[in-house]
Amino acid sequence: ELHTLWQNEERAAISSGKLNEIWHRRHDYWLLAGIVLHGYARWTDIQNDGAFGVINEPFKGEASKGNFLEMKNKFLARRFKLLEQALVIEEQLRRAAYLNMTQDPSHPAMALNTRFAEVECLAESHQHLSKESLAGNKPANAVLHKVLNQLEELLSDMKADVTRLPATLSRIPPIAARLQMSERSILSRLASKG
């Protein structure tokens, strides 16, 4: 989710030429650096520190609104929560790799993941067909119908996989238990230097 968000934001910032005015990964970096220096959820201190002025840039156009500070602080809190979740997941993945944990290929979640990859590949490789079909290309129209039928079958299989997933997932111990770490210890490890 975060990488997709970064790509979209960065693309918008670059194409508009507003690298400071549109929030993207550079602002996230400075937000995290501000939290390291000033502390958890100390939004006002971070915003008032001139060294972190770049995080104020995207909000300059909103300064005239009555609830400006509240809106800005809520955005910073939501954005930090997203970054924090990404850091926790990154630490969980690192810990799983350290413990040499692997995903069971026969697990229903893996089947769902495989089908999703097939849907994505099929859709991307045949996306040009809709334009050609609309332009009156009869062979393209025939191929498009076959591709749509394949997609429908894959989506039907995925729907069946999803209905079996809750029962399977309920039997899996939480990630913190599998990593032998609490979320608090993960966060404290991330916060400690070195």
UniProtKB/TrEMBL annotation:
Domain of life: Eukaryota
Gene3D superfamilies the record matches: Homeodomain-like
Domain CHD C-terminal: 20-165
InterPro entries xref list: CHD_C2
Name under which the protein is recorded: CHD3 protein
Originating species: Neopipo cinnamomea
